[in-house]
Design goal:
heterotrimer, A alpha/beta (327), B alpha/beta (499), C alpha/beta (271), A: 327 residues, alpha/beta, TIM Barrel, 8-stranded parallel β-barrel, two-stranded antiparallel ribbon, C: 271 residues, 7-stranded antiparallel β-sheet, 7-stranded mixed β-sheet, 8 helices, 16 strands, 28% helix, globular
Chain lengths: 327, 499, 271
Amino acid sequence: MADLKTRFFGLELNNPIIVASSGLTDKPESVKEFSELGAGAIVLKSVFEEEVINEYNQIAQSKSSAHFEEFIDYFDYKIRDQVLANYGKLIKEAKSNSQVPVIASINCVSAGDWLQFASQVQDAGADAIELNLLVLPSDLERNAANNHQFYLDAVKEVLRAVKIPVSVKISNYFSDLACICKELANEGVAGITMFNRFSTPDIDIDKEKVVQAGALSSPDEHLTALRWVGLLSSRINCPIAASSGIHDSRQVIKMLLAGADAVQIASAFYKNGKPYLKELLKGLENWMDKKGYASLGQFKGKLSLEKVANPAIYERAQFLSHFGGYS
Amino acid sequence: MEMTAQEKQQQERNKEWRDELRKSVPNKDRVSIERVKMTEVAPEERIKSQNIEVNCGLTPEQAQREASRCLDCANPTCIEGCPVSIDIPRFVKCIEAGKFLDAAATLKEFSALPAVCGRVCPQEKQCEIKCFYAQKMKKDPVAIGYLERFAADYERESGKIQIPEVASKNGIKVAAIGSGPASLSFAGDMIKLGYEVTVFEALHEIGGVLKYGIPEFRLPNSIVDVELENLKNMGVRFEKNFVVGRTASFDDLKELGYECFFIGSGAGLPNFMNIPGENLNGVMSSNEYLTRVNLMAANQDDSDTPVLLGKRVAVVGGGNTAMDAVRTAKRLGAEKAMLIYRRSREEMPARVEEVKHAEEEGVEFHNLANPIEYLADDDGRVAKVRLQRMKLGEPDASGRRRPVPIEGAIDELDIDLAIVAIGVSPNPLIPACLSGLKMTRWHTIEVNEETMQSTIPEFFAGGDIVRGGATVILAMGDGRRAAANMHKYLSEKHAEKKG
Amino acid sequence: MNKIVEKKQLSENVVKFVVEAPMIAKSRKPGNFVILRIGSKGERIPLTIVDSDIERGTITLIVQNVGVSSGKLCQLNEGDEITDLVGPLGKATHIHQAGTVLALGGGVGIAPLYPIVEAMKKAGNRVITVLAARNKDLLILEEEMRQWSDEVIVMTDDGSYGRKGLVTEGAEEVIKREKVDECIAIGPAIMMKFCALLTKKYDIPTQVSLNTIMVDGTGMCGACRVTVNGETKFTCVDGPEFNAHQIDFDEMLKRLQAYKREEDQARNEKK
């Protein structure tokens, strides 16, 4: 039997398959199920600063008068306390139902808020924290330096304040992706997961409405993560996990060959049910047996940028010459 | 049929003396008078002591002149702004006519504690902003607040305080829990209706926030004591050091004959931000700080209660409580008394007058800043606060612009005392004793907004325990409404028994 | 008013008072405390209710003279009035049949331990009590404890009475020789911290009663806040008893020192 152990989130995991933060990980019962099915780790549904803001707006609307200004003034802190208390409860219950690490996922807008959320989540007993750095660069006034600064500030704040491992999950909207990964690694994060997914807008031309496209990833998306895992895994000093579009064990193996230490999966479980986890693990083990690999270390990163025979294939943005071959 | 308030107001307005008074001065002369300036003790003087009231009050001449500015509108909009619908033109015109005691009597028809409200009501958000001057002429409104204070003070100082008529005793016992403004005004009305009223107070002093919350320099305790004396003279009983639900249960009180209860136990639960370092020595709630100073006189040498004095004091918040705390710190010797508020100066919910006074006294305003962490020195005492600088973003649902953090803009301030004054929540002790009492998610007692009756029929409630931290005048309005409806409820109950 | 009907010196610095307080006597349960004030300038201080007599309408308080306010109280005599007295405050002890209860009392902490020992015994538990004091003179309530304990072990720091050693040593002996289902420890904060560390080793559920700074005692000001299981709790309304293994003792010990400088100054000035 192959040894599937790997290291991510600053923790030793039994295998590289991590259940990603999603609606599948928002209840202690689901966490228990994934734990029993043999997940390497489970990332809880994210707690968002937006939840606090939305609730605050609801309350402010119902109590908007001059008399309540003082009462409402810092009411978002009360809401935040409740939101975090509920999340803390989820963390505690998930932990008591799980044999594998339970990771809290937080998503904030400001450095100060990260700090508060992170400390409270640590106190609730999470094994590690995943900072979900999810800023869509759609603000006309915000340039790359601003975003860059935001991410580093958030990470610095949290690392200073908590003792448990802190990892980050980033988007691929960076003009300096390699550079920011290097800087995050240097700050001391326990892992970088690439990439998270924004919700996707679509247009219904009959109703003439903007709608949300399907929430699940498609398998093709995995190629984006694959390129960057291959490009960066051997060159930055921090573990990497691949995410988005990993739907079967073949794609898991690809990521490991490219140098990933783990993968995060959600959509595949939505599509195929939680027990699919066992199939993923089986697929990985069967391939390892066929190839004669006894542990992940024997093939992990074999095809990363530094190791591969033709590294240019990772970097080439133009495929003109490829198509050029047809002319 | 009893007249409505509006009909009564019109009836008064149509009286001959009012008509003559209106005719005695042409309106164009009235509007040419500038709004009176309140005499204030100079800042350098007043910060030497906690006990120097800043506003000195109007002289009779000033009061009459200011009162003459009032146009005695046919449809007075000022009354709409008042939470207890005081017949403002009536009392103001009494002042103009020199009938100061009548002005006080008018006030007392509507408000149990006019000397208090005249000092602490946010008139700029209530009656004065609705004044014709402000609304239509874009000029300074009639100084209704100053006039209310004048009339109440005049009556008190004249020694001719009218004890209202008290109906003959009906033998029914009712209780008020807490002795703050809500309960006091409830008690004042119920005693007049002939009930036996007992007010139960957990602390060793009567008055609630009026004593432990609002400092001497804004509301002297002696003023509150006069009102309390009046209530005692009318027959209200006060029991101090009595925590209802602990010292005796509600069932015990029912056995002693109490039939109905008004819960006015207030918002005595401090809110903290739950940021790292908030439990360090030298970081305390505004409730603790103000209770030590106002109730326990900790700043005085002969008091046994200590208070932490700071040279560099930071107060977090922007409401009246925050202003009270930072101005107290200044008076207690702070070299730097700083206010940290995450929105702009204009958006601070505190009374405009308090902000102005604080500024004059040398309080440093750090607007658009928000604490994210407190750091300690080697002894575990707070030494620094880390602040996130903010900018104003889009308006939120309350209409105010939301403070948005500026990335990377984090500063540190050296401090040795931090006071968290970000608001208060309802104290849970009393509600915890009453199963069946419906509470909101935010731990306030749910009541019928018209009658102030809770989900348990014999329990009424009002003030901060229903509203969350609000104002004295709102609490008083609640107390009065509860009294009227409890009276109705009890009258019906006893009529049934007889019938 | 609250008249003192009995006064007894238990040791050099420890005085027992029996005070008129009929309503408190009736409502109180083991674990509750009162807050009192001496004089119109007096400070509000908490004291655990040691005992009560419903028929006489009295409560018993035991106070150690450690500062200005406790000093003033100790100077009062039979017939004097306590200016303000309010209670019963705090959550009552959870009295239940656990099996074998190990009760640990340090110094004046023995006083608040007494009503709990009595109640636990009456509830059908086997109660083993370890009393500790610096020396023989400072040991209080030994006879009363013997009345309600299956066994009493006395430890003194200097060996002047009972056995020489700390309360934790006596406690560990008991734990090693028989099964202990529950522990309750009351005494100076540092003592409770070490008792908690001891019982954690053996996984024995343990309650302690905290003696934080207080002002109002009804949950209004937050002066008494402690961190329990990562959450902020108020000793006066959520406590005074808490699960010992969840308390951040280091933070609590620091917070106890908050007014030390001011209090030392005051004590020196009064001299």
